[in-house]
Design a protein that fits this description.
Helix 1 packs across helix 4. The strands form 3 sheets. A 10-stranded antiparallel β-sheet has the order 3-4-7-9-8-13-14-12-11-10, with helices on both faces. A 3-stranded mixed β-sheet has the order 1-2-15. Strands 5-6 form a two-stranded antiparallel ribbon. It is globular, with a radius of gyration of 20 Å. The protein has 337 residues and is α+β, with helices and mostly antiparallel strands. Bound molecules: zinc ion (ZN) (2 copies).
């Protein structure tokens, strides 16, 4: 019997297709070896710095000049930016109905490693820690610009997740608006807070710990689980156990632990699904709505092992062909070291 499940934090309904359920190991995809000579044309490889816009920020060996090799993390403006930095965030209305504004924003690319064929699952943990420290620095810098409402940090890994560039990189986009689907999450969390006096995410963490069957991994300060109403197979959440609504509230020294648990989760996904394409997104409250009691920052990993089809697009109801409890068990049992 399929199950309709509602995510208590977003009120989104998901169909868990128990009778069409696949075994978690049936979904492996992916390519592990890069084609030869790919690096010769890669704009993100060291030595090719002139092929990218001027760097905004880098972690580099002392004494090396910007836009030359010697870096281990490099942030550049996106050459094909979705938004442009200049302009003001004034809203306009046409015919008293159609609201519009300038497409202002920052769109940055964070090159995660000088090594072309690495991914977070194959990098040393120290490098992953540096990535999170750099995310944090850029988040803080961009949120100082009062025109921006939201800083979205995300990663597309592989063709099905929206990137054709193999060199490991993430993107950071600052937007002057809070999109509706984020606003919806925040409002549902606020409603939950009004009813219960607690943060729905803190409550989810507590109940998931009590039940245990959807937990993938846990450290002192973070927990990884498959949401009760996962929209797609192996949807995975990494969330801090202590309440905080913005990503930049993570103390820098805790980025090491976040790197450890994120890398562990991605190694397990890499091994169990044979290097699948995936996206991850850091969800955080809007810049001007800091320290919210009812919202909680987290990272969501979405392996792209099934395609979104007409029914999902039309109805907004997802059909998930892997039971979240089986996915969690499978990931728990996949060796890490
Ligand atoms: Zn490269
Ligand atoms: Zn919370």
């Amino acid at each position: 019997m399929p199950e309709l499940r509602q995510n208590p934090a977003t009120k989104e309904w998901v169909i868990i297709a128990t009778d069409r359920a696949k075994r978690p190991e049936e979904l492996g995809t992916g390519v592990i070896n890069p084609p030869p000579n790919e690096k010769d044309h890669c704009p993100f490889c060291p030595g090719h710095e002139k092929l990218t816009p001027t760097e905004i920020f880098s972690y580099r060996t002392y004494g090396t000049a910007p836009n030359t090799p010697g870096w281990w993390i490099r942030v550049i403006p996106n050459k094909f930016a979705a938004l442009q930095p200049e302009g003001n965030p004034d809203r306009f209305q046409m015919e008293n109905l159609f609201l519009y504004m300038n497409g202002i924003g920052e769109h940055e690319v964070l090159i995660e490693s000088p090594e072309h064929a690495q991914s977070i699952a194959t990098m040393p943990e120290k490098q992953v820690e540096e990535i999170f420290l750099a995310y944090r620095e850029r988040y803080i810098a961009l949120s100082q610009d009062h025109r921006f409402e939201m800083i979205t940090i995300f990663k597309n890994h592989g063709l099905n997740a929206g990137t054709s560039l193999r060199h490991p990189h993430s993107q950071i986009i600052a937007t002057p608006i809070t999109p509706n689907h984020i606003r919806h999450r925040i409002e549902e969390a606020m409603r939950y807070f009004d009813d219960h006096g607690t943060c729905v995410y803190c409550d989810m963490i507590e109940k998931e710990k009590k039940l245990g069957d959807r937990i993938v991994a846990e450290t002192d300060n973070f927990i990884v689980f498959e949401p009760f109403a996962s929209r797609s197979p192996f949807e995975t959440v990494i969330i801090p156990k202590s309440h905080a609504s913005t990503f930049d509230s993570i103390p820098p020294e805790r980025c090491k632990e976040l790197a450890y648990i994120t890398r562990m989760t991605l190694v397990k996904i890499f091994r169990s699904l044979n290097n699948p394409d995936y996206n991850y997104i850091i969800f955080s409250s809007p810049c001007h709505e800091r320290s919210l009691e009812y919202y909680h920052w987290y990272i969501m990993i979405l392996p792209r092992v099934t395609a979104v089809a007409g029914f999902e697009l039309g109805s907004g109801i997802y059909i998930n062909t892997v039971i979240p409890e089986s996915a969690a068990k499978f990931l728990r049992e996949t060796p890490f070291e």
